[in-house]
Amino acid sequence: MLVCLIADQDLIYWVTLRQNSQWQGHGRDKGSAKYETAEEIIKIAKDKGWKHEIYSQEYSIDEKSTEGNLLLDFLTHTVNFRETAEKQLVEETLALIKELSIVKDGKRCGDKKESLVIIYK
Description:
Radius of gyration: 17 Å
Structural class: alpha+beta
Number of strands: 4
Distance between the termini: 7 Å
Largest sheet: 4 strands, antiparallel
Strand content: 25-35%
Number of domains: 1
C-alpha cells in the first residue's frame, strides 16, 4: 500500500513555484519545482493496474490575519521572508498572493485543497 498526501495547484503551490523559479535562496533547488497532482498519481496507478481511493479536503486560508507575516513565512518556506528576501521577490510574491486570492468579509483569503490518495494492489 502506498499513501500520498498531495497539495493541489492552489495558492501555496503557486507561491512555492514562484520561489523556486525566481530565486534559489534558502536551500531551494530549481529542479524541485515539479509537483505531481492527484490526477497524475491516479493515472499512474491505473496504468499499473493498481486500485486507488482518494479523499479530498478544501478550505480557505486568511492571508491578512494578525499572523500574516507568519503565514507569508509558511507560504515561502522562509523565516522572516519579508525582511530577508530581496525586495523585488517580496513584491512579486505579495502581488501573486493578491492575484490568486479573494477578499471575503474584509479578509484576503486563498483556497487550499489537499488530497489523500491510497494506492494498493
